[in-house]
Prior knowledge:
Blueprint: H1 11-17, E1 22-23, E2 33-40, H2 44-57, E3 61-68, H3 70-78, E4 85-88, H4 91-99, E5 107-112, E6 114-118, E7 137-140, H5 145-157, E8 165-167, H6 170-178, E9 184-188, H7 189-195, E10 200-203, E11 212-218, H8 225-236, H9 238-246
Helix pairs in contact: 3-4, 8-9
Amino acid sequence: MSRTRRRTATLPLLLALTLPLAACGDDGDGGDQKLQVLAASSLTDVFTELGRQFEADHDGVDVAFSFGSSTDLAEQAADGAPGDVLATADRTSMSVAQDAGAVTDPATFATNVLVIVTPPDNPAGITSLADLDGATWVRCADEVPCGRVALAVLDDAGIDAQPASLEEDVRSTLDKVTSGEADAGLVYASDAVAAGDAVETIPIDGAESEPTSYSIAALDQSEDASLAQEWVDLVTGAEGRAALKDAGFSLP
């Protein structure tokens, strides 16, 4: 599917359209401070885990997340939407925010590669990219990081099979497979790990030659730059790297 973005929207409208925040805490009482993290949807599980750890280490702090397409989140940050940290699934998306002066000196903290996922019983008998021709399969839209990687991987393999649909982010792609609406989907290795027994994972030959690199930075518009930097330090430090590795990401 194609989507047309309106970059001329007024800020109030932009904020109204900002993706819903997912609070990481379980008690619902609310803290004295809120750290708002805008992050690629493929980071949902590992960042939620790190958020609980961050809250435990910072009394009175709630970590709230807005997970979604890196491109959308970077554009929101570039347009001045509120937030403290931006984490994207590729450098191209981060450059949107950086070029707008919303971030400085983003750091690369993880990498990922594309895999094929199918329902556990693999009804279409998918074993490689070549088997996508004739199957009902899905991938991310061209303008988001997982879509850009998919296009490169498919081009490298000489595959011109057309997807049944183009999804807004990698988790939407994964959902189409786990719900039984698609025979296969192209997602990141970490999303396949997160799905567990709900999918069968098929490595893609040569996918390692088209990795995506994740970038993170504190937003210049953050109301608490020190707290935002502490989150960046957690993600890029030893504890964050261990959590990312366990979640199926590779480390730079």
